[in-house]
Every structure is written in C-alpha cells, then in structure tokens.
C-alpha cells in the first residue's frame, strides 16, 4: 500500500493506493460526509476491485486530511476530487480506464464529476437519494445525469431512499441500511462482478 499527498485548490488531499496484479483499470473511491476511507463497504469494494485486476485509490478529501468532520461545500469537494484524479492519472494510472466511485457523499461527488473526469463507469455505495424523511429534497438529478454504466449498491432499509434502475444504471439491494455493514460479502460480490463485466470490453 502506498499513500500520496496531493495538493488541491482547497488544501492537501490524500490518496491510498491498493495495487492489483494486472492493473486493467483504476477505481477512485471517495468517503462519506462524516466518515473516512476505512468504512467497511469501501474496504469490501476495494478488495473486490483488486480481486478482478483493478487498482484502487481511496481518496481522503482535504477537510478530512485537515481534521475537520463537517464536509466542505459541493463545489470544493468536486474541484478537489478532480485535482486528485488528474494527479493520479499523471503519476499512477497513466492510460488506464478510470472508474469513479464512493459511498454516500462520495458517490454524489463521483456522479457530479464523472463526465469532466472522463470516467468510464461509476460505482455508488449507498447513494443518498434524499435526506432522511425529506423525499422532496431529491438528489436524483445527480445520478440521472451520469451517462456511463453505473452500479448503485443500496441497503433495503436505507433511510436516505432507494434509487430505481435505469437504462445504464443497475441497482443491487442488500439487507441493511445506509452503512451496508449487514452484507459486506454482498457488497464485495456485486462490485466485483459488475467491475469485471463493464471493463471486459476495454481489456
């Protein structure tokens, strides 16, 4: 495992690299609003990606690196994320297809930046469709705007809602709630099978 500090417009971010033997693609994963890269579902997805030959970079946003728990505004999160992705392409992932992903808030960042970052696919763990009890405040436009293959792994009892499948969007429902801890093997299986399948045409 290698760690790299990346300067962004909003302070240093940190990327933790997990290398696969083959390196057929690279998955860049972001954390949730109040959590870090050690979240169990992120760990499961990382293991799944490496198992199918995909390098993984777990990205800590600048506010987390600085020791703050309250997340930065969306504009800052997106700009920092794209700066990290650019740096990773320059130093670690040159010429590899990029998959963007993350859990909760990190999944929203991945969706919002997928087009600009030229991601070939997007992996969403526990996408927060709306705040708990506030279905009128939907974030579905962020998910609907993604034009590349997308997988959403969601807990059946997630208080943040459940997105529906769409033309290029698959949804896998697992037992449990927003943290996806109830079925980590399910997270591993869903992420690994999907990554292997969507990347096959690019091999």
Number of structural domains: 1
State the fourth-level CATH superfamily. Alpha/Beta hydrolase fold, catalytic domain
Strand order of the largest sheet: 1-2-4-3-5-6-7-8
Sheet with the most strands, sense and barrel status: 8 strands, mixed
| Shape field | globular
| CATH hierarchy: architecture | 3-Layer(aba) Sandwich
| Beta-strand percent range | 25-35%
Order of helices and strands: EEEHEHHEHEHEEH
The helix fraction, in percent, is 25-40%
CATH class: Alpha Beta
The rounded Rg comes to: 15 Å
Describe this protein's structure.
InterPro entries: AB_hydrolase_fold, KANL3/Tex30_Abhydrolase, NSL3/Tex30. Helix 5 links the parallel strand 6 and strand 7. The chain has six helices and eight strands; from the N terminus they run E-E-E-H-E-H-H-E-H-E-H-E-E-H. It is 32% helix and 25% strand. The two termini are 24 Å apart. By secondary structure, it is of the alpha/beta class. Strands 1-2-4-3-5-6-7-8 form an eight-stranded mixed beta sheet, with helices on both faces. Helix 3 crosses helix 4. The chain has one domain: Rossmann fold, CATH 3.40.50.1820. 44% of the residues are buried.
List the helices and strands and how they pair.
Blueprint: E1 2-8, E2 11-18, E3 25-30, H1 40-51, E4 54-60, H2 62-65, H3 74-91, E5 98-103, H4 105-113, E6 121-125, H5 140-144, E7 150-155, E8 169-174, H6 184-199
Parallel strand pairs: 3-4, 3-5, 5-6, 6-7, 7-8
Antiparallel strand pairs: 1-2, 2-4
Helix pairs in contact: 1-6, 3-4
